[in-house]
Amino acid sequence: MDNQSFAKAWKWQVAFSLFLCSWGWVSGQLRYSIAEESHPGTVVGNVAQDLGVNLPDINTRRLSLGSEGSSRLFSIEQKNGALVVYERIDRESLCGSSLSCLLHLEVVAENPLELHSLEIEILDINDNSPIFPSTNQIINITELFASPGVRFQLETAKDLDVGKNGISQYKLNPNPYFSLLMKNRKDGTLIAELVLEKSLDREEKAEHKLFLTAIDGGDPPKSGSTEITVIVLDINDNGPVFEQSNYKINILENIPLNTVIIQLNATDLDEEANGEISYSFDHHTLDVAKMKFKINSKTSEILTIDTLDFEDSDFYELYVKATDKGSPKLEGHCVIQVEVKDVNDNTPEIIFTSKANEVPENTPLETVVGFITVRDRDSGKNGEIRLNLSPDLPFTCQPMSQRYALVTSGHLDREKVSQYTIILTASDLGSPSLSSQIIISLNISDVNDNPPAFLHNVYNAFISENNEAGGLLCTVSAVDPDEGANANLIYSIAESHIHGSPVSSFVYINSDTGKIYAQWI
Predict the structure, then answer these.
(1) Pairing of strands 301-304, 266-267
(2) Cβ contacts of residue 465 below 8 Å, gap of 6+?
(3) Is 51 left (phi over 0), alpha (psi -120 to 50) or beta?
(4) Tens of pLDDT along 119-160?
(5) Predicted TM-score of the model (pTM)
(6) Is residue 303 domain-resident?
(7) How many helices (H) and strands (E) does the chain have?
């Protein structure tokens, strides 16, 4: 089944909630599902339809996606409001091995301005096969020392797919000496151990060839194999033993580099080389953990080698093996579970979204002029945020679901204040508290709300009788505090009569300059 058919097989689902408040803004949430590797142009869902936008209004509303990084993978078709795949979607590169792959975007609608949360779940398809780190594993087992029931750790296969498409089982080729035991680690990873079912005799058979196969749960399933070579050896009949098989420790995420978090201790009852122990991480320890911690092979001290970040990972499992120097080498194993505790090391982030850079001065109270999103990657009190607005301004912040709306709270008058500088401060509740600020500049646009006013209520003009027609009598002048076209003035003389003759037969006025001239009689 191709990717597009797979995508159609998943019925996309929409969860949408709508809130209509007194000041006229709308907030909603959309949720869709789409399979990875869906072809560009595949329809995810119809945003316009689910937001209640009629087809004739789509061009006016101008639906678009916010500027989040994941928005490049999708686009909204302006002709019908459909959300479609724009670029190839690779779930593994987006979300790695996380069971849930949820992309958070925002849909911006204009006229009026609306901001809606959009969640797209990327569904996994079985496009990766299990792979073992090596094609051949070698296990040394001492004859007679290894009794039935002894377990031997095997390399774990990796599958970039998740959930049911991840590794679901291991199989071992049938043989009378070994069987498999499967179990899950705390993070859910399935691992296999080799169990000895029958005592080994080197003189009878010195080497056993086994084949281990990892199978995922996809439909159809994919698999990968590795060869296991069991070499039956002699001597060195005591392996290292740790004081505990499992250790649990807690550390803060701001712990300095090269800090020793634990020192292990394993003992070996053998003497000389057979009792000398070397410590190392075994193959069950993930690469990401090896990038954060290292172990001293001689002292068994485990220390940090890279900065820890609770927000990236709050838990690590370190699988340690102690290996003696006998012939053959014997091993002991233990697990260190490291829990990383949060400290207040992330500053709150403020994002202001607005499609308009001007606000008319006759804007009604409680009109939304923009949306404010605040984030903090810390957890608990360290991630709780308090938002403050600079005082004595005709604006306030109204809480919404997952964000705030910046609304007018007072009357605007461009003739008094033509621009407002708004300082937003976000502070977390950690100790000590961290904060950040952004500055928003809002321009107030003019409306024609002021009539012209003459500089004088009365103008006196003195002229001689028998004056020549066309002579300047006087100049009147008026002002208008509005701007632009709202402040352009046209002068005219109110129609009246003098001794039965219209006043326009005596004088006329220049409509642009306000100059009054004598008229021909």
Answers:
(1) unpaired
(2) none
(3) alpha
(4) 999 998 888 899 999 999 999 988 777 789 999 999 999 988
(5) 0.55
(6) yes
(7) 5, 39
